[in-house]
């Protein structure tokens, strides 16, 4: 295999890409309007008809979809085809209340896997490679996405799923894995585990890693590259649009090429919804151009980033997105899990605490830590240390049930958490993931 | 014959203990006995003071304060004194939650017990002729 998985598309001229997009958006809006009542109503409210969309530029006329719409429409409200045509679902972790369930026809799975295949080939991957997929398999899109992409490239695919590090290392060493796919924090952990076992970075056959699903820094990239002796590539995606592979890095490692023939990206001002020119920082909005079962138009990702059309030395012509620099809402991604302060507040109230709290997120040895200071009220106070410690443990357990990861709870006296005027400072993120 | 102890919830942070102590000292209240139970996050300051009501109302302004009945048992100045007391409590099936010691000038040495059943403990100890400190004595030390 050459340098590209689909050279004619990946290196197409700007005009060719726009032609593809023009053709697809007209069809797609018609498809959505006819099949998705929820979106049809949004379009009718805005007074937009499918025939108003004649080219990709007209996309500005369409209404946005947000996470709230996805929750309202759960589970079938945004389905674009008959269930009998669907072959699979995937789902978000559902930490914000209702899960998002995304549906796929075989066509949708194919185009998603094609995107992942492009990502693998962009790291120099070919049928010679042994790809160890250590993303979780299941409702989470990571495992299945890279798995499908790897098979499309013709790689020997190891469906390891996440966890069981002993076994990961055994297969990696015995079968000579050349590409590792997992979250960056798990890659760092595998690197540390290898070192603990006395392996040098040169002892493994790994050449590249494709890491995503959580925020990570340039420093972390360099650390992982050093500890595993590889080149580490970023990958981006979300369940709502398909999964990983919406955008991926090439050898330049200066941003992720968006698969523009399938996903149209816009950057908007998160407050006004106004579309911003390339190069400006704003909220990333995606339109799936040819998905059948879950065809989201103008979906607001809440990720803040920048698009760049500067010529890339890899020869790919598709626009590049920066690593997300933050969120336009207050969502935190901790150990790959989406966490909202509102969930933490919900648990506190349910457990009888006042909603006065301070969340501290940090990263220690490449693992995220979550500490929550919670104010104790006079009625809950006991003069026995063990009673208060038991309360902390109980609250930790309740939090774990709600958000999926276990925080460390610190009960503190009332009024000890600073009150600010206006919007309360609820979160201190010390991870320095963004500049 | 239980005496009242104040328990104050204090964040395990620089300056927090001295803030509470300052409140008491500025009000001219005497500390008779103190101990601290702590974890990494917090401490529980336990005080027996000359004016419990006044200390409670002052400390409550900025802190969580709880009044707990405890028993202060006079220790005979001879070996095995503490053991004798513990045996009495054990035989009466009383649990000791925590304990600490203090001396009260000419009245001698005392050990404070926070127990699960104050009345039963008082009875068991008095029956064995052990001397418990009273609220009046606390005020007059």
Structural description of this entry:
The complex is a heterodimer of chains A (435) and B (141). Chain A is of the alpha/beta class and 435 residues long. Chain A has 11 helices and 21 strands. Chain A folds into 2 domains: 321 residues, Rossmann fold, CATH 3.40.50.12780; 98 residues, ANL, C-terminal domain (GMP Synthetase, Chain A, domain 3, 2-Layer Sandwich), CATH 3.30.300.30. In chain A, the strands form 5 sheets. Chain A has a 9-stranded mixed β-sheet with strand order 4-3-5-6-7-8-9-14-13, with helices on both faces. In chain A, helix 8 packs parallel to helix 9. The longest helix of chain A has 22 residues. Chain B has 5 helices and 6 strands; from the N terminus they run E-H-E-E-H-E-H-E-E-H-H. At the A-B interface, helix 11 and strand 20 of A face strand 1, strand 3 and strand 4 of B.
Q: List the strand order in the largest sheet of chain B.
A: 2-3-1-4-6-5
Measured between the Cα atoms of the first and last residue of chain B, the distance is 16 Å
Largest sheet of chain B, in brief, is: 6 strands, antiparallel
Q: Residue ranges of chain B: pLDDT <50 for 5 or more in a row?
A: none
Strand proportion of chain A, as a percent range, falls in: 15-25%
How large, in whole angstroms, is the Cα Rg of chain A? Answer: 23 Å
Instruction: Provide the helix percentage of chain A.
Output: 25-40%
Q: pLDDT average of chain A, as an integer?
A: 92
| CATH C-level of the largest domain in chain A | Alpha Beta
Number of helices of chain B: 5
Low-confidence stretches of chain A: none
In the sheet with the most strands of chain A, the strands line up as: 4-3-5-6-7-8-9-14-13
CATH architecture of the largest domain in chain A: 3-Layer(aba) Sandwich
Helix count of chain A, per DSSP? 11
């Amino acid at each position: 295999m050459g340098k590209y998985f689909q050279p004619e598309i990946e290196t197409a001229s700007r005009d060719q890409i726009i032609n593809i997009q023009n053709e697809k958006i007209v069809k797609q809006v018609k498809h959505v309007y006819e099949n998705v009542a929820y979106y049809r109503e949004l379009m009718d409210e805005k007074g937009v008809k499918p025939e108003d969309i004649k080219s990709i530029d007209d996309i500005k006329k369409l209404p946005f979809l947000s996470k709230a719409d996805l929750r309202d429409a759960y589970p079938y409200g945004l389905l674009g085809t008959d269930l009998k045509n669907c072959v699979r679902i995937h789902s978000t972790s559902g930490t914000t209340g209702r899960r998002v369930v995304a549906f796929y026809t075989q066509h949708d799975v194919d185009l998603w896997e094609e995107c992942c295949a492009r990502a693998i080939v962009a790291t120099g991957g070919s049928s010679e490679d042994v790809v160890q997929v250590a993303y979780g398999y299941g409702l989470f899109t990571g495992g299945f996405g890279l798995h499908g992409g790897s098979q499309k490239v013709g790689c020997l695919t190891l469906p390891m799923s996440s966890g069981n590090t002993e076994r990961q290392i055994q297969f990696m060493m015995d079968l000579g894995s050349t590409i590792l796919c997992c979250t960056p924090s798990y890659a760092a952990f595998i690197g540390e585990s290898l070192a603990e076992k006395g392996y040098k970075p040169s002892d493994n056959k790994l050449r590249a890693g494709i890491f995503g699903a959580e925020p990570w820094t340039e420093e972390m990239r360099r650390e992982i590259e050093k500890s595993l002796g590889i080149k580490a590539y970023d990958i981006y995606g979300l369940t709502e649009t398909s999964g990983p592979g919406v955008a991926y890095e090439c050898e330049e490692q200066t941003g992720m090429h968006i698969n523009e023939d399938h996903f149209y990206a816009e950057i908007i001002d998160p407050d006004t919804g106004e579309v911003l020119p390339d190069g400006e920082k704003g909220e990333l909005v995606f339109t799936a151009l040819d998905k059948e079962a879950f065809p989201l138009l103008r979906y607001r990702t809440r990720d803040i980033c920048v698009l760049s059309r500067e010529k890339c030395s890899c020869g790919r012509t598709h626009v590049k997105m920066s690593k997300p620099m933050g969120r336009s809402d207050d969502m935190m991604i901790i150990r790959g899990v989406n966490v909202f302060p509102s969930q933490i507040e919900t648990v506190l109230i349910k457990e009888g605490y006042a909603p006065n709290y301070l969340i501290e997120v940090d990263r220690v040895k490449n693992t995220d830590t979550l500490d929550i200071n919670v104010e104790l009220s006079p009625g809950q106070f006991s003069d026995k240390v063990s009673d208060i410690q038991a309360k902390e443990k109980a609250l930790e357990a309740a939090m774990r049930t709600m958000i999926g990861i276990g925080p460390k709870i610190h009960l503190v006296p009332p009024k000890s958490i600073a009150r600010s005027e206006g919007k309360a400072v609820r979160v201190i993120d010390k991870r320095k993931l963004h500049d | 014959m239980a005496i009242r102890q104040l328990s104050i919830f204090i964040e395990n942070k620089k300056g927090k203990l001295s803030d509470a102590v300052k409140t008491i000292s500025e009000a001219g209240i005497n500390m008779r006995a103190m101990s601290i139970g702590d974890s990494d996050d917090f401490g529980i300051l336990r005080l027996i003071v000359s004016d419990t009501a006044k200390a409670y109302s002052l400390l409550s302004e900025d802190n969580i304060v709880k009044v707990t009945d405890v028993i202060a048992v006079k220790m005979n100045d001879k070996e095995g004194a503490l053991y004798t007391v513990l045996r009495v409590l054990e035989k009466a099936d009383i649990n000791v939650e925590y304990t600490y010691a203090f001396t009260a000038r000419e009245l001698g040495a005392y050990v404070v017990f926070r127990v699960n059943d104050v009345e039963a403990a008082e009875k068991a100890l008095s029956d064995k002729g052990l001397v418990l400190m009273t609220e009046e004595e606390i005020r007059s030390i």
